[in-house]
Amino acid sequence: MTDPSSTRITPGLAGVPTQVDVVVIGLGITGAGVALDTVTRGLSVLAVDAHDLAFGTSRWSSKLVHGGLRYLATGQVSVAHESAVERGILMDVTAPHLSRALPMVIPFNSSVSARQAAITRGGMFAGDLLRRGAGTSPDTLPKPRHLSATEALAMVPSLRSAGLRGAMLGWDGQLEDDARLVTTVARTAASYGAHVRTRARVLSATATSVQLRDELTGTEVSVTARTVVNATGVWAGDLVEEVNLRPSRGTHLVLRESAVPDLQVAVFAPVPGETNRFVLVLPQPDGTLYVGLTDVPADGPIPDVPEPTEQEIGFLLDVVAAAFARPLHRTDVVGAFAGLRPLLDLPDADGAEGSDETADISRRHAVLASRTGVVTIVGGKLTTYRRMAEDAVDAALAGAGIDAGPCRTRSLPLLGAAPRDVLAGLEQDPRLVRRFGTDAELVLASAVETTGLPEDELLAPVDPDCPVTLAELVFAVTHEGAHDVDDLLDRRTRVGLVPADRHLAMPAAERALALALAGRVRL
Ligand SMILES: Cc1cc2nc3c(=O)[nH]c(=O)nc-3n(C[C@H](O)[C@H](O)[C@H](O)COP(=O)(O)OP(=O)(O)OC[C@H]3O[C@@H](n4cnc5c(N)ncnc54)[C@H](O)[C@@H]3O)c2cc1C
Question: What are phi and psi of 296, to 5 degrees?
Answer without folding.
Answer: -120, 145
